[in-house]
Amino acid sequence: xxxxxxxxxxxxxTIGHINIIERAAALFDELHVVVADNISKQYxxxxxxxxxxIEKSLPGVKNIVYAVHPGLTVEYARSNDISIMIRGVxxxxxxxxxxxxxxxxxxxxxxxxxxxxxxxxRYFLIRASQIKELAAFGADFSSMVTPPVLEALKKKFxxxxx
Length: 162
Fold this sequence. Notes:
alpha/beta; two-stranded parallel sheet; three-stranded parallel β-sheet; 162 residues
């Protein structure tokens, strides 16, 4: 059985995240979507809410295992005997950062291989932080998230016009 993991904050999940998850799930028998729970960060949604939003955005995808992990991603990979990590990249800046992280992770868990998956060009400019900022200003960002995520953001930001 081929297994991989796709870690992230997913706060909130964007259509870019959903696209990467769909594409990665099609490549592996089992894809672990691992939601970060870093106590030093302040999130808009709880880890459980983020998982629920991803699940609702991918109702037809059945080979996904969802997990919340508060520690290093490589520790999740090692403890679940997963040796492939998927990382989405939008451009050179993302790739540079992700490459350095991949090298660090390789030092910590030599069996781990990182596969870089370029974003679909339609989602190149979408960032979760950008969506939160647009929501705070009441802008229409509906083309950047799935309907379940849009509804959840409207509850957090009543001024959203979408």
